[in-house]
Amino acid sequence: MGLATRLVVQRLALGLLLLLAVSVLIFAGTQILPGDVAQSILGQSATPEALENLRRDMGLNEPAVTRYFTWLGGALTGDLGTALTSGADISEAIGARLGNTLFLAGVAAVIAIPLAILLGLIAVRFRERWPDKLISGVTLASISLPEFFIGYVLILIFAVKLRWLPPLATVYDGMPFGERLTLVLLPAITLTMVVLAHMMRMTRAAILNVMQSAYIETAELKGLSGFQVIARHAFPNAIAPIVNVVMLNLAYLIVGVVVVEVVFAYPGMGQYLVDHVSKRDVPVVQASGLIFAAVYIGLNMVADIVSILANPRLRHPK
Amino acid sequence: MSKELDYLASRVIQRKMNRRSFLGRASALGLSATAAGTFLSNAAHAAEPVKGGTIKVALSGGSATDSLDPALSTNTTMSSITRLWGQPLLELGETGGLDPIIAEEFSSSPDARVWTFKIRKGISFSNGQPLTAEDVLATMERHAGEESKSGALGLLRGIKDMRVEDGAFVVELDGPNADLPYLLTDYHLMIQPNGGKDNPTAAIGTGPYVIKDHEAGVRTVFERNPHAWLDTMGHADTIEILAINDDTARMSAIQSGQVHIANRVPPKIAGLISRAPGVEVRSTAGPGHYVFIMHANTAPFDNKDLRMALKYGINRQEMVDKILFGYGSVGNDTPINASYPLFTPTEQREYDPEKAAAFFKASGHEGPILLRTSDNSFPGAPDASALFQQSLKGAGIDLEIKREPNDGYWSEVWNNKPFSTSYWSGRATQDAMFSTAYLSTADWNDTRFFNEQFDQLLFAARAELNEATRTQMYADMSTILRDEGGLIGPMFNDFIDATSDKVAGWRDTKGFDVMNNYAPAKMWLVG
């Protein structure tokens, strides 16, 4: 396991370096955007005096480099600062929003991942026959539709017409778990439909690839049923690429769901970030950007490590 | 027949019968559907407000960046929230004029320079602290002070001195201003204990509710203020305001019955929503308008003939029909319409391609004219620009449209580039609207309009306490603006809101949308 440990340490160090680079990029990006935070807050009602007062209050008259390092120092000590616009504590606000995002991503993942893998296995078992074609057709159709459209269709059917589920997923602190689950059901189904095809197709392709191997033929000759061959012999050897695509989709469920959040008015990270980007609230954008980058880098790292551990040749190097 | 109708209407109000069957029965009794609808809403008005329950409201505009400081409130969600916990000195009357709120009565010196507001006695803030004239003074000081970040700072300029005299709040102005009481209805100017100087975001005021739970840009929950004093509002026990910016999400929330009140119904689908069971669409005329603005001091728009060509080259009725879907009225190249207190109509300018062509020729300008627009400058702005392009083509004028990104439009394009699309939500009075955007020294003189005669009339009108004379002065100013100005104002947009049949008490009001933001406080649950 020496190699694995070294690898993890190496990846972690690289990840931290990457995060630092990302923070510089985000900061530079927010500086390039036209208009500043004072102007964005006051909008059409900005007078020169009010602008000047607000800028001075927010420390916007300091040079950009100074502001960046002040923030970085705070972030390293766990203090993400306060939002320029509302004066709210960022760590606290992000904590709640991130929790919501993870909850929605979790519910979607619990539905989507087993379903995708199961459908992938079924598609391989009946490859080139009607179940395979049906599964591929339906999942590809659902990934081809924009997610807001799927969301609207689900709202129209289940909320407006049938009135089974509420159209809004405005969850809040202290809401009972059951109620929370009912509220996120529609957005979670929407997300499931968006990520299903990718994972299902990858599972199918990876297993089909392994199915060409000689040991599969052996297993078939020894008299195992078609499904047993796939589940017990082909699947374990196809795990690396599947984990990779599952991790990518998990990352997407966490960082890429702003459209679904808006459609269902779900108070997650995406909406929070967009609100602050449009007001040039740099500390919040930085903090959210860092968290998103950390999630992405972290999940990719997990995928790497899992594929190493799943491969005996890498696990026991000569 | 009328007794039977009364009976049926009372059944609907008690929710023992639905609206649709009422309309059916009423038409069987020989009443047209419109008449029956009016009858029903009159009956609902006559009904006493019902206390209790939770009213849920879906509003657009809220953002995670919103602050609870009323000075920084910029959108409908926040101004509605502010109006639930706070109260201004005076408020716009529902049908015009002013309602005394915290100021019991007010008067001015004959020259309209010194104003005295008598502060109501015996009312307390939601924390139990009695409200005094000192709190009023401190509030105004905070908004008007040099350090102020308040959106009301512009309104409060020209104040020489503010003081408390015998429990009354006194304002002394540099120059006369007959409109000062109207300016103090501004939604930023909520009276806070010690003016909110200690804790501006505490949301402590004299309004009907107090905040129980607030997550900016998501959800705000209110419960009754134990010290509330005004019994014309605050009927429900709890109010829940949800910030929902996606139009489709907001509309499905009202259609599915998850909320009782929703604002900003897109005009395109207002007809569809009004046919949904249990939902009523409320369209209210207001001072808001969509505009094309030219910088009257920048070539080629510094040429009056060219401005006239463009003003005659726009088809106003077509804009109202196709951009507002009929939920609005035609404009007349002035920001003033019948929503303003002292309004007289001036001659309506019509689409006239021949005149436009003649003016264009007289201007000597050649080549295309560049117009900048974006989606967020007003709903349907790019479409309106395309319509303008087509109607100008009829006059042989070539309009080139440049689509700008939403992001940064207000800082980079509006009030910056010489010809662009924009909107104004209007102001409480002509004076406020003109001094905000058309006075030579205005902060947002977004048409670069510098007209001495106009400025003089504006100052003279401020000192004029005779209403008939003032009305005439404002009409003259509108005419000057219409003929000389850089404003092309094709349409005034109505506010379109939706309410569920589970709430009653709606009235068409002056001011902003959702009953000047007071719908949650003034409506009640039925049955």
Question: Could you walk me through the main structural features you see in this protein, from its secondary elements to its overall organization?
Answer:
The complex is a heterodimer of chains A (318) and B (527). Chain A has 318 residues and is mainly alpha-helical. Chain A contains 15 helices and no strands. Chain A has a domain at 98-278: MetI-like fold, CATH 1.10.3720. In chain A, helix 5 packs across helix 8, helix 8 (177-211) packs across helix 10 and helix 8 (177-211) runs antiparallel to helix 11 (239-255). The longest helix of chain A has 36 residues, at 90-125. Chain B is α+β, with helices and mostly antiparallel strands and 527 residues long. Chain B has 4 domains: 2-46, no CATH class; 54-63 and 207-282 and 495-525, Periplasmic binding protein-like II (D-Maltodextrin-Binding Protein, domain 2, 3-Layer(aba) Sandwich), CATH 3.40.190.10; 87-196, Dipeptide-binding Protein, Domain 1 (Dipeptide-binding Protein, domain 1), CATH 3.90.76.10; 289-493, Dipeptide-binding Protein, Domain 3 (Dipeptide-binding Protein, domain 3), CATH 3.10.105.10. Chain B has 18 helices and 21 strands. Chain B has helices spanning 2-13, 19-28, 33-46, 76-85, 133-144, 180-183, 247-255, 267-274, 304-312, 316-322, 353-363, 381-393, 409-412, 430-437, 452-463, 467-484, 513-516, 519-522, and strands spanning 54-59, 90-92, 98-100, 103-108, 114-119, 159-165, 168-173, 209-215, 219-224, 238-243, 261-262, 279-284, 289-294, 328-330, 369-373, 399-403, 419-424, 487-493, 495-500, 503-504, 524-525. In chain B, strands 8-9-10-1-11-19-12 form a 7-stranded mixed sheet, sandwiched between helices. Chain B has a 4-stranded antiparallel sheet with strand order 4-5-7-6, covered by helices on one side. Chain B has a 4-stranded antiparallel sheet with strand order 14-18-13-17. In chain B, helix 1 (2-13) packs antiparallel against helix 2 (19-28) and helix 15 (452-463) packs antiparallel against helix 16. Chain B is globular. Classes of the chains: A mainly alpha (318), B alpha+beta (527). At the A-B interface, helix 2, helix 3, helix 7 and helix 13 of A face helix 7 and helix 13 of B.
